[in-house]
Amino acid sequence: MNLRERKKRRTRDALLRAALELFATRGYEETTVDDIAAAADVSQRTFFRYFAGKEETAFFVPRLAETHVVEAVRARPPGEAPLEALRRAVLESWDTINEAIEELVPIELHMRVYRVIESTPALLAAHLRRAAELEEQLAQIIAEREGLDADVDPRPRIIVALFGGVIRVTERLWSAGDDLSLDAMRQLTTTYLDQVGPALAENWRTKPSP
Amino acid sequence: MNLRERKKRRTRDALLRAALELFATRGYEETTVDDIAAAADVSQRTFFRYFAGKEETAFFVPRLAETHVVEAVRARPPGEAPLEALRRAVLESWDTINEAIEELVPIELHMRVYRVIESTPALLAAHLRRAAELEEQLAQIIAEREGLDADVDPRPRIIVALFGGVIRVTERLWSAGDDLSLDAMRQLTTTYLDQVGPALAENWRTKPSP
DNA sequence: AGGCTAGTGACAGCCACTGACAATTGACAA
DNA sequence: TTGTCAATTGTCAGTGGCTGTCACTAGCCT
Description:
2 copies of one chain form a homodimer.
Chain A: H1 3-26, H2 33-40, H3 44-50, H4 54-58, H5 60-74, H6 82-102, H7 107-119, H8 121-145, H9 155-176, H10 182-194, H11 196-200
Helix pairs in contact in A: 1-2, 1-7, 2-3, 5-6, 5-8, 6-9, 7-8, 8-9, 9-10
Chain A binds a DNA duplex (30 and 30 nucleotides) through residues 2-4, 7-8, 11, 32-34, 42-46, 48-49, 52-54.
């Protein structure tokens, strides 16, 4: 890797870390691009040469995680039922994701930024749109696994929408709670996924909540 | 109603219609607030006195629809299973919603704007966030119906997330297709909701798609 | 009729973002 | 090494969304 390449990487990382640090401490809306550029000691114009917009810095790490999840789903054995494959892929990918993140920014900083994403309307909106795109990808993968065409058979999109919905609910609850550990997230996710069956029962009153 | 009040209503409607017309013909990003204000023959500053932002004009009509849906769910008999109540509420509310919309803008214009929302990243993101808020409301209503606490029992949020996921999939497919009629939407929705059960089956290969 | 106030326009300014151009800096061959 | 080329950067100017301020006008109320 060149001196030039290394310099670029350093600048990008400096901008990224500066941005996330500022978002986590001061808040997203309260941070201007000029602040970020100043903190990384480059011009505002340079910031926009590394990131398409302020938003992109906030989603740089989540994008990593998404990539891992997609690959984890692809790697699942074809025998598994779709929902099972999605569930196992997500649960197992979280372990490995953390290492990849830590190379870029401290996990703890990432957690704090995640909270900011969930509590900042503009960022939450962007997050949900990204999630929708991810779901589209996953639906295609599931369709392939099952030898179906997602544009004809509704089931791949439905099962992914269901799964995605549950994940988003748990994400929200997790980020609103006070235990931001990986274990808490894992616990919440399995609990909620286990409730999908009961939720579809005709009459809820026969079986109380856990 | 005052002359003053009437004048205000007229100004707001003029701005709204001008905005939607411009969005539908020229596109959202290609329309500036100055364009909208000019088309309605008021200053840009006045535009911002009627709408919090450009985005709000695009979601003015959808907001109406959401209100109707919430009320329709509230009006469902308590005996129905949750998913059934949601399904019937949505299907039945569409009929009545259209009349309310037509008082404000032509339905046909609304349809064209809806397409713009689905195909404009910034608007789609906002739409998904609004949908998430709506789901939260519906989860509370469902929890009440069943005499549960949505913060303790996961099932209300899960069932609403599932339902919302399916609705969003159908919205997307509908707006991407070429039959923008109400009947097409209704058809698509019932078909997809009917596939929820099959989608949860362990092995999809036993039963092909319809 | 005349004072009161809600609604408006004009103006200035902030912030995200972009295009254009000039200055700088690393890469690479002579 | 040095000179040349290309990549990277900073500066400047401009656009569009959005907000605060202030003076002015138009409808309301007694």
